[in-house]
């Protein structure tokens, strides 16, 4: 069995016996024409739409391996979040001190060359903190889904049984 869909209407699935071939695509086109004639095709197809424009649907089998892959991926995402959280925490205090020091640039107070040099060196810390913080915020959003995946995997099947 082979299945085809259309880029314009991915919800339409045309199933044909055999493997992907010109003959199978022609059979799928016949099915498509029947749908069009019956008025069951939700989109208008352009002139010249042909069998080569059909998109083969690959079987997406959800087996235990893919379930295990999603759990492994969830754990990796959470591990990454933990690492980023530590990195952000470790550099936050120093970055905030440097941020306060930046304000001296906007005053009429005089500054020494040493203060400016320290400030310029501090910009690297500030930049690294800000980048790590952005990555942490993005990772945290992704980790919410990972946490739900793990929670689902950790659910006991016995809870659904009535006594």
Properties at a glance:
single chain; 163 residues; mainly alpha; three-stranded antiparallel β-sheet; 3 strands; 6% strand
What is the distance, rounded to the nearest whole angstrom, between the alpha carbons of the first and last residues?
A: 43 Å
Q: Can you count the beta strands? A: 3
Overall radius of gyration: 29 Å
Principal-axes shape call: elongated
Proportion of residues in extended strands: 5-15%
Mean pLDDT: 84
Q: Spell out the helices and strands N to C.
A: EEHEHH
- Low-confidence parts, pLDDT < 50 over ≥5 residues? none
What structural category do the secondary elements indicate?
A: mainly alpha
Helix content class? 55-70%
Largest sheet: 3 strands, antiparallel
Number of helices: 3
Strand ordering within the main sheet: 2-1-3
Kindly describe this structure.
With 163 residues, this protein is mostly helical. 60% of the residues lie in helices and 6% in strands. It has three helices and three strands, in the order ββαβαα. Strands 2-1-3 form a three-stranded antiparallel sheet, with helices on one face. Strand 1 (2-5) and strand 2 (14-16) form a beta hairpin. It is elongated, with a radius of gyration of 29 Å. It starts with a strand and ends in a 9-residue tail after the last helix. The mean pLDDT is 84.
């Amino acid at each position: 069995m082979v299945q085809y869909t259309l880029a314009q209407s991915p919800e339409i699935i045309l199933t044909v016996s055999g493997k992907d071939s010109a003959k199978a695509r022609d059979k799928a086109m016949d099915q498509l024409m029947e749908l069009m004639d019956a008025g069951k095709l939700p989109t208008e197809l352009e002139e010249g739409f042909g069998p080569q424009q059909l998109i083969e649907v690959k079987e997406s089998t959800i087996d235990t391996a893919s379930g295990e892959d999603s759990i492994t991926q969830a754990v990796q995402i959470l591990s990454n979040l933990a690492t980023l959280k530590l990195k952000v925490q470790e550099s936050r205090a120093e970055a905030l001190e440097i941020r306060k020091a930046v304000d001296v640039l906007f005053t009429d107070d005089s500054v020494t060359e040493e203060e400016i040099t320290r400030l310029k060196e501090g910009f690297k810390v500030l930049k690294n903190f800000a980048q790590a913080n952005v990555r942490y915020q993005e990772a945290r959003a992704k980790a919410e889904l990972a946490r739900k995946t793990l929670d689902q995997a950790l659910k006991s099947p016995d809870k659904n049984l009535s006594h």
